[in-house]
Please model this.
Amino acid sequence: MSISTAPAAEPAAATTPPAPVRRTRRFRHAREWWFGALLVLPALALAFTFKLVPLVRGVTTSFESSSGFGDSSFAGFDNYTRMFDDPMVLASFRNALLVVATLPVWIVVPLVLAVLIHQRAPGWKFFRAVYFIPYTIAPIVVGIMFRQILAPDGPINALLRTVGLEPLALEWLNGRNSALFSLVAVALWSFFGLGVMTYLAGLATIPDEVLEAAYLDGAGFWRRLFSVVVPMLRPTVAYWSVLCASGVLIWLFPLIYALTQGGPGDATMLPEYLVFLTTFQFLDRGYGSAIGIALFVFVALISVFSVRHMFKEGTRKPR
Amino acid sequence: MFRRRLTGVLAAGVATAALLAACGGGGDDAADGPVTLKVLTWEPGGTEYWQQVKSTFEASHQDIKLDLQSVPFDKYPEVQGPYITSQSGPDVMANNAGLELFDRRGAYTPLGDKAAEINKDLVTYSGACEEFDTSKPCYGVPFSYQGNVLYYNKDVLTAAGLDPENPPATWDEFGAACDAVKKAGKTCLALGLSGTFPAYWDFPEIARNYLTEDDIRGVLNGTLSWKDPKLVQVLEKLAEITTKGWANKNAPSITMLPDGADIFQRGDAAFAGTIISDAVNWEAFGKALGDDKLGVTRWPAINPSAPLAGKFSGIEGAVYGVTKWSEKKEAGLKFITWLAGKENGELWVKYAKGQPLNKNVDPALLPESPAFKKIQELIAEPTLHAGVMLSGPEADALARGWQQVTLGQLTVDKWADQMQQALERSPTKKQGN
Model:
């Protein structure tokens, strides 16, 4: 056998399409690009008009000082420095941190309920029929309902007294801590249906055989939940976590409005409600905007971890 | 040929349309039909009253039509705010008399010399004028009167061994009455402190015992410090109402309207301090308890010898004015002039069951309720209402501070500090504005 030193024929030359074909492909690519851009354009325009423009306007206003409905003047960083001396602002962000600390509950409770429904636990048909109802009730109506339910002589306390748990019959909305956590509990009641639905959609993608195999291997409910369901449902959990992290502070607004108006004192004051008060009741638009921007940064910081996690999950190659 | 004719017809059409548009452009001098006035209102007095306003006014003013834009009271600032910032929208709109109106005075046309003439038959209209001074610019027309009284349930007083015809007149008597009522198993004063409403209304009832009218103007201008002993004493007495156990325990977390009022209407409380017009007043309480069971009195005096102790802290209700940007100012002026008149005063009494400001309202039309008649007596000697002098941050800090003092989370001195901080944060009271 001899080895030839002659240059090999270039294979590329054999696969390079003729010029008219290349032009057609390039034209097709360009056309697809423009078509794609055209489809994205309405969403971009909407995002620009209704998200970016108000955000920029909010940032601009936060550097202004205004008096009532009169003209405003440039105030530099005054509105931002004022926040550090304002006990109400500090209290509102302290309360926001307490609310954020309840996030694990927001993530786990709907997951457990979704798995119970998915695994057809006793009463699953009833729960499947009703779990979404609280989410369909307007939050302001939920607030009005719970004002009665949580009243000192309301049904919750009546029930507690009937079953002999009188010491637990608190004045739910009257205490410094009980008011905030009652508010969060009401919000969770109002929004958990959305979480259950999200998880049920994710659970539908897990093959039944996997859960059955775990069951036959003797895995109990919690073992199946944390060793099988959660790992396989990671993207869905991440999605719901991001939604909760960014939404939990904002979802509470109508409930605060209807239930506590931020009180008693500053016990349930959250930054978003304070933005509303400062802007519309105190007519201090610049300061209200500055608090709003601070809230935006706060929520962005909380969300960034979850978003990063979700991005990693989304870009992970299948094994 | 045809194309030329078509062009001619189109040109004529365009010219006609332009002419019509110009004529219908909304000026005061529209000769082709009635002028339509856009009126922004939260319908104080109720929808039925406003329907009567529209039909009665239009019947007597064939050249003006009213287009009412009704907005719920709690949404009103959100709707009105953008109109003011964009300097466009309704021809006539309203704000509550006092600081709320003054904050927005740039949106209204000052009435100038006409103010005195338009408002000549009103008991008072100073709440529509700068610094509550009728010699200064006035921006609109009120027609209703508002303020706070102490309603009481005669049956509860009787059951507690008290004389319902002689309700407590002094602070000490009130304390003794509360002890008796509590012993009888009822709440003394039905109170809801959530929101700014009760603090805003109850504050002047105490303040009258310590402040003069000049002091109250000092509160308005932001020149009277909240660390001033007079104001600190007012806060101390407000705190006593709840810390002495005179009110229901859950007061900090419930609203006065409807929650606090409900306690009173159910017959579970002896007293309720609330308003004389609009929502939940003598009429609602009379219906719930029976007119003969409902009593009305002034808040108990702390310093009976104080110059304002025996007066009524009254404030005009909604003030309607013509907007600065309106192109129909003349029609707008006709409408608000009519609002101040006797005809509207009588509609206000008949359909809104409110206290009229017009002095010429036929007395035969006034309700027969003994409570209403007593209120008529009490309001005869009015003074400035210290509550409406508070800025938004002050009213908010007053309410939240009262809640915290009640729950033992704040001392009165700290409350005064917070009030002073709120005053300094008030954009409309910044000195030099």
